[in-house]
Amino acid sequence: MPRYKFRVFFVLLLLLISVIISCKKVPVQGVTLLPRVAYVPIGGSVTLTASIIPEDAYNKAVTWSSNDTLIAIVADGLVTGVSKGRATITVTTVDGARTATCAITVYIPVEIEMVLVEGGTFTMGCSDDECDLPHLSDESPQHKVTLSTFQISKYLVTQKLWVDVMGYTRRVCYDALNGRYCFNICSINAVCTFSISDLS
To answer: The pTM is what?
Structure first.
């Protein structure tokens, strides 16, 4: 075979191989980010994990960004708190520019006196001779509950402590005919009740 024909054949073979490889490349369809909400002390950090969809996508490269680098910065998924406030961390896929976000709250570290509660197993619910009294549906029948050892605050949570830890105050807003009104749920030193939904 003449040399030039061999070169043409070799080039065509390389093109064919590249086309076959390209056809096998699976494009990125999406990306997820965990956790979706995180709380970080000033100077502290949290690692976010990005998962590419589908798992066999060819190009899994991503970029990271913060909408407010004065509050939080991010590098390769590691978020560091800079100052008190809120920021949104975004991960973007190089292939397809798919995005996912995580809401970051940066707070001032607060020393809280904690009490250790030893874990164990105890009986929860009302006994047979007590269940004729008004009770919640999950209070009967009696059943065993096992808890791991945990720590709990020695004192009740005040509004000031909540603000110091969470970085914001709980407010209630409502719309009226003459405008929108917002107010704090309780005064700065009052003890308030919070639910798990308040953390999200």
So the answer is: 0.54
Which domains, and CATH codes, for the chain? 30-107 (2.60.40.1080), 119-148 (no CATH), 155-193 (no CATH)
d(CA 86, CA 72): 8
What pLDDT was estimated at residue 49?
95
What is the C-alpha to C-alpha distance for residues 130 and 138, in angstroms, rounded to an integer? Answer: 14
Mean pLDDT of the chain: 79
Strands 114-117 and 37-41: unpaired
DSSP-based three-state secondary structure for 82: coil
The confidence band for 143, taking pLDDT boundaries of 50, 70 and 90, is: confident
* Average pLDDT over every residue of 186-193: 51
* Separation CA 192–CA 154 (nearest Å): 15
| β pairing state of 37-41 and 99-107 | parallel
In the 3-class helix/strand/coil scheme, how is 136-174 assigned residue by residue?
CHHHCCCEEEEECCEEEECCCCEHHHHHHHHCCCCEEEE
